[in-house]
Amino acid sequence: MSDDMSGFSPKNKLEKEDFYTSPEGYIVFTEKYHLKRGNCCKSGCKHCPYGYDSKSGRFINKSSENGSSK
Predict the structure, then answer these.
(1) In this structure, are residues 36 and 18 in contact, taking their beta carbons and an 8 Å threshold?
(2) What's the pLDDT tens digit per position in 8-27?
(3) Helical (H) or strand (E) element with 33
(4) CB 30 within 8 A of CB 19
(5) What residue segments make up the domains of the chain, in order of their start?
């Protein structure tokens, strides 16, 4: 057992398709990164595949916005 009791695992190395840098110099995570992560952080990320709307604090159905139906 590890002596680290923080509960955090070591950082995974980011791959090229996980992010890009904005013109302002910010790191922007891609949809692919969020899907690999496996859950929504509820931070209102630009490429959130989970449909979280930070203004309302709710998840929206992304398929209905695009005019498609399941």
Answers:
(1) yes
(2) 556 678 899 999 999 999 99
(3) helix 31-37
(4) yes
(5) 17-64
